[in-house]
Structures are given as structure tokens and as C-alpha cells.
């Protein structure tokens, strides 16, 4: 699906957290939102997810007004840095949750849910952990479960806010390639927030550099790196002479 973000503005009192942000995302594209803390990355993602609303601007998904739908109807899969799994549920139950709470008309049958969750766990290399509880998993395994839970409802787009932020460097690096392969094979339109420039440059089809609520530059990773549009982008992303 395509996403057309037009002139999104979000104020908190006198403070402008998002300042007329516009962005087009193509089907199957992975776009990284890169920028320092406080630059508005999470605010943009929260608005797309339906957890917050803009003061101005519009978002079209495949040409339709996305903001008119409430969060549960937007078809987004969400993974946040500290996106808590349900501690009292097994891995299987966590992943099945989004399907089980669907309205009756949209809810698959018990067997269909079971098959779908088991197939997904298999694909995510989590099959052997199905009966475990989150406390019995490593941080990297937990984030894979969070991703499986987001994917279980077959979202039209994936929104990731620092999905590996809490993990140590070695786990981060291995999950990067794994997530990228998965996202590509599903053809899932994805927006991923990160403050890690290496992560953005490595994983993304295009990078959006954010600065003080504005888009400082949009481009392919090599273009952002080689031809920064401003001293800020140069300092944040570039070779930092
Ligand atoms: P990032 O994810 O890039 O670190 P955020 O989008 O979380 O940045 O925040 C952007 C700015 O908006 C920050 O200065 C933050 O303090 C402010 N902000 C975010 N949410 C709120 C809120 N609910 N109330 C007041 N200020 C907020
Ligand atoms: Mg944030």
C-alpha cells in the first residue's frame, strides 16, 4: 500500500513537535525515520498508528483518508522499544491475542487461529518457544515475539519505533538482517524509527532525517551519506569531518 503524508503538524501547547511534515511511501518500501531525541519521530508514528491526532495535515493510505479510521481499523502492526508482551500469557497466546479479540465477524475459528500462529512462529524461528512465558526469553527473542504478534493480524503496514533499542549491539545487528529479509519477503510497507544512523543506512530503502519536528532530508541511504543537504544532516549522518 502507499502512504501519502501531507503537511502534518502537531503542537503541544506552544511547542511544535511536528512542523508540516510531508512524505510519500511506496508499496513494500522500508523507510527509516532518523534523528536525535525529541525530533518528532515517535509523534509521527503515533499519529499514523492512531494513538495521537495531528492539529493539521492529512494522511492517505491507498488514496483513502487514514486518519478517519480509529486505531483498530487502520491495519497497522506496531512494535515499540518497550512494547510489553503480556507477561501472564505464553508466546503462543501473545501472538494469537490480536486474532482472538477481533470482532466475531472477522475472527478466524479456533483451528484456523492455531494454524496461523504456529505457521508464523515457525517462520519467525520461535516454534520451540511457543509454550514459554516472556520472562523465560532473551530480549531478542521477546522482540521477535512482539513482531510476530504485530504480523499475526496481517497488517497493511508495519510501524516500528526503535524496535531494537533496548537490545545489545550484537543482537541488534543480527536482528537487522533478519527483519529486513522478513519485511522484504512479505512486501510490507514499513516505517521504522531509529536514532542509530548505521541501522538506518543499512536497512532502509530511503531515510528521512528529522530535526526539530521537520524533515531535514529524504533520500536513499548513500545520497544522505554522500550528499547531506545541510550542516545538521552532515553532522548527524555524514562522515563528520
Ligand atoms: P523522538 O521520538 O524523535 O525522540 P518525540 O516525537 O517523542 O521525539 O517528541 C518530540 C517532542 O515533542 C519532544 O520534545 C517531546 O518532549 C514532545 N512531546 C511529545 N509528546 C508530548 C506530549 N504528550 N506532551 C508534551 N510534549 C510532548
Ligand atoms: Mg521516540
Automatic annotation (TrEMBL):
The keyword Transport applies. Coiled coil: none annotated. Keywords: ATP-binding, Nucleotide-binding, Transport. It comes from the Bacteria. Residues 3-237 form the ABC transporter domain. The keyword Nucleotide-binding applies. This is ATP-binding cassette domain-containing protein. The lineage of its organism: Bacteria, Pseudomonadati, Pseudomonadota, Gammaproteobacteria, Lysobacterales. The chain holds residues 1 to 241 of 385 of the full protein.
